[in-house]
Recover the amino acids of this structure.
């Protein structure tokens, strides 16, 4: 009996250790601050309310655990749109990914008919999913921004 209890405790501890190693965490507002300072961004419009995610992207507030987002609504240069969402679960993450992919496609189609130079910027961008974290980063510095994001995911 003692062996069974000991074995159960050991297996439980291993499972807990494994689960804690696979959980990803990041404070997305801190990540966005780092992106802004590292990439010398200013003048972007912050999306501060979860209900605005629904207005801009169709993302349901119930799917969102946390988010940080900014867009450049007045850019005549390369487009800038940074959206980072931690969804509540994997189903919510898939929903968010679908909505952000729809937004990416809309941006792509807009620049496809507008400017080949700006379209080249958009073509290098993408929607990414890592666990429950979903990003849409559209910028000429998108890869640097994504690298910063991944450096904060633990």
């Amino acid at each position: 009996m003692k062996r069974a209890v000991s074995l159960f405790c050991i297996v439980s501890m291993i499972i807990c250790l494994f689960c804690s190693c696979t959980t990803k965490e990041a404070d997305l507002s801190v990540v966005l601050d780092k992106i802004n300072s590292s990439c010398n961004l200013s003048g972007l419009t912050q999306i501060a309310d979860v209900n605005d995610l629904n207005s801009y992207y169709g993302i349901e507030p119930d799917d969102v655990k946390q988010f940080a987002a900014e867009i450049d609504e007045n850019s005549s240069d390369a487009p800038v749109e940074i959206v980072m969402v931690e969804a509540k679960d994997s189903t919510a993450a898939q929903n968010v990914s679908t909505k952000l992919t729809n937004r990416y496609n809309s941006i792509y189609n807009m620049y496809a008919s507008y400017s080949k130079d700006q379209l080249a910027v958009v073509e290098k961008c993408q929607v990414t999913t890592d666990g429950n974290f979903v990003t849409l980063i559209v910028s000429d510095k998108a890869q640097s921004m994504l690298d910063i994001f991944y450096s904060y995911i633990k």
Observations:
- Residues 15-22 have pLDDT under 50 and may be disordered.
- The beta strands are 45-47, 64-71, 81-87, 126-130, 133-138.
- The chain has one domain: 24-152.
